[in-house]
Structures are given as C-alpha cells and as structure tokens.
Amino acid sequence: MGLAGFAAPALASRNVEREALHDYARARLADGDGALGASVASYKRALSIDPGSAVLALRSYRQALESGDKKLALRAAHILDGELALPPDGTLLLLSEALQEKDWTAADALTQRLVAERNFAFLAPIVTSWISLSKGQYAPLVLPQEKSIASLTRRYVAEHQALQYLALKDAEQALPLVQQAVALRTNLLLGFRMTAAARLASLRWKEAAEGLLNIRSKDAVRFRQAIEAGKRPRRPEVSTAAQGYARLLFRLAEDLSGENSRTLALTMARIASFTDPKADEYRVQVARELVNAGQPELAYRELSRVNGKSPVAWSANDVRIAAVLDMGNSDMALAMAQKAVAVSGADSGDYIRLAGLFSRRDEHQAAADAYQQAMDIFGESPLPWTLHLLKGGALEQAGRWSEAKAELEKAAALAPNEPVILNYLGYAQIERRQNVGQALALIEKASDLRPDDAAITDSLGWAHYVNGDVKSAIPVLEKAVAGAPSDATVNEHLGDAYWAAGRRFEARYSWNAAYVFADENGQKRIAKKIELGFRPDFAAP
What we know:
Layout: H1 3-33, H2 36-49, H3 54-67, H4 70-82, H5 88-100, H6 104-117, H7 124-135, H8 147-167, H9 171-184, H10 190-202, H11 206-212, H12 218-228, H13 241-256, H14 262-275, H15 280-292, H16 296-303, H17 313-326, H18 330-342, H19 348-360, H20 364-377, H21 385-397, H22 401-414, H23 419-431, H24 436-449, H25 454-466, H26 470-483, H27 488-500, H28 504-517, H29 520-532
C-alpha cells in the first residue's frame, strides 16, 4: 500500500474533526447571542459528527432541555452516561424514558441510582410506589429512614398517595389525603385539584369534587362549572407511573422556581413535560421558567401548543402576556390584557395586570380606573390593603393628590404596621411640604419596622431635612447612600443636605453621583446645582 492509502483516512478524520469544531463554534456563538434555535441546530450537527465528545454532549444536553428538543436531550444524556459524565438531573431524564416505555427493570435500576447519587434520593420512594401501581402490585410508599431525606419526601407524600388511591378508584382512602395535601400547601395546587375533582366526580363524589374547586382561579371556576353541569371536562390525568412521575417533577419545579434555582426549575419542568406531553399545566410552567430565564420568545412558542379549551387556558394566557411584554411589545401586551378583562369571568388579577401595564405607559388615570374595577370585583368582601395602596399610587401619579391621600390612608388603616404604606404616605406629604411633622412620624415608624431598607432610610433623612433638622438628616442620608449608591434621588438628597450644612465640596460630589444615574429632567436640575450651587428652585422633590 502506498503512502496515499494511509493519508486518505487521516485526512477524512481531520475533516470530520474540523466540521465538528465549526458546528461547535457556531453553537457557542449562537449561545452568546441568545439565538437558542440556531444553537441547538448546530449542537445537533456537531454531535452527529463527533458523538464521542462529552463536552459537546453536555452542551447539547443543556441546550436541548432549554429548547425542548427531547430527542437531542436523550441522545446527549445517553452519551454522557456512557462516558460517566451524566449530571445528576440526567438520571431523572433517563428515568422518564424508562417509565414512558414501561421498562420496569430499567426504571427500578434508575430509581435505585437516584438513592445512590443522593441529589434526588427523596423522590425515590414516591417513584417506587408509582411503579408498583403500574405493575399491578401497589405498595404504598415508605418514607426513607434518613431524616434529612424523609423530610423532603414528606412534602409530596399526601398529594401522591391521594392520586394513587384515586387511580385505584378508592375515593374513601383518597379524600382525607386530598384534603391533607391542599391544607399543607400555600399555593393553589390547581392541577392537583382538577385531577382529584375530575376523578372524584367520576366516582360519584360530586360535592367533594366541587368543594376542591372553590378557589380564586378562573381555570378552577370554569372546571367547576363543567362538573356542576354534569359534563366531563378535559382534565389532567395522573394514573400511571409516568404521569405520577411527571407530576412529581412539576411540583418540584414549582417549589424550586425562584431567583436562585431558575435553571434547575426549568430542567424539572421540562422533564415533566417530556414525560407527560399531554399535561398543559407542565407546559405552562416551562413557559413561566423560560420567561424567568430571559427567553420570552421561546416561552411564547411553547404556549402556542396550549389552546383556549385547555383546563389551564387562563393560566397560559397570563404567562403569554408576560412573555409578550418581555419581548418588548407593550402595545400587544396591553391589547391582550384588555381582551382578557373583556371576557366573561375576568377577575381582580386581570384588572390589576391591566393597571400595571397602563402605569408602565405613564397612563396613570387609566391605571387608577383599572384598580377601581379590580376593587369592584370584591363586592361586599373586604378589600386587601394592597389595592388601596396601588390605586392611591396611581392617583398620586395622575396628579389627584387629595383622592390619592384618602386611598393611602385607607391602606394604612387596614395595615398600620406595613412599612411600604407608611413610607409612601409619609414621603408623598413630605414632597408636598404638607403635614411635615405627622409625615416624619409615619416615616420614623416605617424605619423602625424596616431599618435596613435604603429607600425608607432616604425618606427619613429627607423628612429631617425638610423639617429643618439638617444635623439629623446627614448621617441618615449617608446611610441611605451606602445602601443604594446608584440611586439618583438618594445622592441628590444627600447633596442638598451637605450644601445646607456648608459642606459645598461634598455637596457637588454627591450631585455629580446623582447626575450619572438621573433621568433627563433630573439631570437638567442637578446640572444647574453643580454649576451655580443650591437655590430653592433647584431643590430635589
């Protein structure tokens, strides 16, 4: 064989490596640009060319979960598993696959792997009990002996035992567990309530079913009305191991959803939707997490699969509006919010959202009117103090101070120890140089209740200043600046106080800091102070 015979395979190998590298580079660039669709496509091509690369597989796995490419996610997970590089949540995805395929041997092994890997060991007893039910050999779950794991498992026990007994058509055993599950949770458990109610109604426990849906939720109201009318509404079904597992991951996603766990929450919600693709509630949670993760376009696309007949159609629309707003289309978001309140069944939350959108557009009178419509929904029921505060704020911004003050005072009467109300009511009067002594007392109380809040500390310092007590104002305002160094208002207040104390150099230093962060109108006022010094007509509001 000549030298050319050896060179050809080597050259082909280099070309393959080069193509894989190019696709990987394109994927990474797309990652950086936020172009998730292009990124996933490039990772998919790169992984086809170089299926043995753990680096490519891990990137592909993460991007596939975010974008919703189940096939790519599973392919990457199997590669990583073969390389002993599968992340802990990857075991959850492999378990999802085994449960969907009813591969009980693999499912049992993967459940035991959860225990060995420990990260998600608390899920294992619940998964094991669902597997036993699907095998036709139901064994109620047993809590782990290790207390730290058992405490996490216990959080989901009542809900899943209830669903398992309902799957077995044993309403008598299920009902106390249903009631225990909803009593233990602070959130609505909407999908659980719907699933349990539909099953109870089918077992002729109609009164118990309707009672479960007696909550403040438009989706629940519509579902209850269907049951009352003797209809069989489209419902989430939880009766198999795969469906029970999907429900478990969805609930974990809900619990993880927050500032510090967004990536994991999205992963849990996505695997839940992979496991039970017919459950719209899981898809809505995926979209919610995508909005939180800064992917509103992908969230909007995800919700295109949830139509108006879905049991969670209203919930989906709420997230859809949030996605459109985050996409930068405030006109479309406003139009959608207006459409939502025009439909029969609109609740106070719909009007509050509409009011918030009006406020973002500086249409404060329209916002106040929408808040009033939200109040009207309550009828004779007591109004929450938050609505008085929101309406009062909108009226104040609309220039209707006397009406705003009345609303703020109603809020303060309902919640006399709520710092945000005390601060708002006090500061609004300080701004207008009205009832300065009483306003100072309100802000002092707010500061006592929340001493580390920079905005309240600023209000207190400014109230001292307006009250003529510059000596007391300066250290309080200095503390406020330390807590909010990039706040234009706080820096400007400190500058005005320094000037009044004769500390001219420090005053200009603070005004310069304020100028950097101020809006256009604020910069015009502050620039005059920096150049000419303080004058009454240059005073901060």
